[in-house]
Amino acid sequence: MAWLAKSLNSSLGKKLLMAITGLFLISFLVIHCGLNATIFLNDGGKAFNEGAEFMAHNPIIRTMEIVLFGGLLLHIFDGLRLWLDNKKKRPVAYAVVDGAANSKWYSRSMGLLGTLLLLFLIIHLKHFWYFSRLTNNLTETHTLYNEMQVVFTSPIVVAIYVLGCISLGYHLLHGFQSAFQTLGWNHPKYTPTIKAIGAIYSIIIAAAFAAMPIAFYFNLIQ
Amino acid sequence: MEGHLNLTLKIWRQKNANVAGKFETYQVSGISTDMSFLEMIDVLNNRLIEVGDDPVAFDHDCREGICGMCSMYINGRPHGPNRGVTTCQLHMRSFQDGETITVEPWRASAFPVIKDLVVNRSAFDRIIAAGGFVSVNTGNAQDANNLPIPKDDADEAFAAAACIGCGACVAACKNASAMLFTSAKISQLALLPQGKVEAAKRAEAMVAQMDEEGFGACSNTGACEAECPKGISLENIARMNREYFSATFSSK
């Protein structure tokens, strides 16, 4: 298997790993966002809590949770490795750089956006994953939905979540189509479609997630 | 209409690869808007020679946009503000009177500075050499149409072969990545039947050499494609990825 390790450790291989783990995380976000969006049914969290209950006890989902953490860590580790590698390739910086003339700022800032996302994720996991999985605070009378209501009373927390979602949106806007390019899927027939789906996906995911803390904070859902 | 410009130039001066460089500021006046950027540097150099100073060293050869020598990073962009041109094809009418223009060499660890604005791009030659040979008959040219190639494939291969190896892709890339260059060189052969025979080995060897030379990885920002004077497409990078990973699983 030395041949595979060699390939995955090449500059192309590191990007392939980034693309595969990225697309995996993209697919996870669909499920996460879809399930959470049930709060907008405004049924007092009934559908949401049922969904959360299912996710917490289904053995396939629990196994996928481990795979998900693995994929996330791989994405972070590989991103860090690429960032450290790439940094060394230009030891003397340019005095003047007109980046806006040839590329989008968010495509050049994936490391920064990823770091912001990681910081947000630590806070987010502490709020809900840690609370529901590693403590005994979750009860019949205090559900995950109730915990969301409590957490999102703080304007600072809501602001952090909205900023996290904006970072996520831009990270996805570049990452979605970039992953397909890295996989070698660039063709006049389907690249415009991939880019369009990527843009729509990024906006919907970021807007839907950001709407959740905002809705709780302004008591738009009970 | 010809006009005349007075300009302030901030030019990177560096004796050789082993010493640190710094910017020097020069004033030039009466620069014709019809001059190319290189001719403007020629005027400056004439003046420097007249007063006994060291002229600014810069690469140039054909001065008609096909040799890829004139590597200058002008006001934050390779080959200056215009798209699809090299520095020799950049004319002074693209600048305003009184403007300050910053001129830097390509900056990449794989492109060490030889002097001032001249960098050593032999890393590119070694990447091409790593690709090895193509199995073709070396006797007389064979009859036309002996080897049918669809027009679209021939055009695409030719578009990739238009790469002049100028290094603007590396200069523009935030990671100093040479993927656009390497992918163009891989594509121009991979697209044609003559190049298919050694395609797998070629992709592996050229990518390995590219990494060895110290070029960065690709962030798919598209800066290389935007700054390429020959319009080499990002599709080539996708093709290189396909060639490389299929080689990973198929080469012996």
Can you put this structure into words, describing what you see?
The complex is a heterodimer of chains A (222) and B (252). Chain A has a single domain (10-88, 101-217), classed as 3 helical TM bundles of succinate and fumarate reductases (Up-down Bundle). Chain A is 75% helix and 0% strand. Chain A has helices at residues 2-8, 11-36, 46-57, 59-87, 105-108, 110-134, 144-151, 155-182, 191-217. Chain A is globular and about 60 Å long. The model of chain A has no long low-confidence stretch (mean pLDDT 95). Chain B has 252 residues and is of the alpha+beta class. Chain B has helices spanning 37-50, 122-130, 151-161, 168-172, 179-190, 193-196, 199-212, 223-227, 235-250, and strands at residues 4-13, 22-32, 73-74, 77-78, 100-104, 113-115, 118-119. In chain B, helix 5 packs antiparallel against helix 7 (199-212), helix 5 (179-190) crosses helix 9 and helix 7 (199-212) crosses helix 9. The radius of gyration of chain B is 20 Å and the shape is elongated. The mean pLDDT of chain B is 95. The chains are: A mainly alpha (222), B alpha+beta (252). Chain A binds chain B through residues 3-4, 7, 10-12, 14-16, 82, 85-86, 88-99, 101-104, 107-108, 110, 174, 177-178, 181-187, and chain B through 10, 12, 21, 23, 73, 75-77, 81, 102, 104, 107-110, 172, 174-177, 179, 207-208, 210-211, 214-223, 226-227, 234-235, 237-242, 244-245, 248.
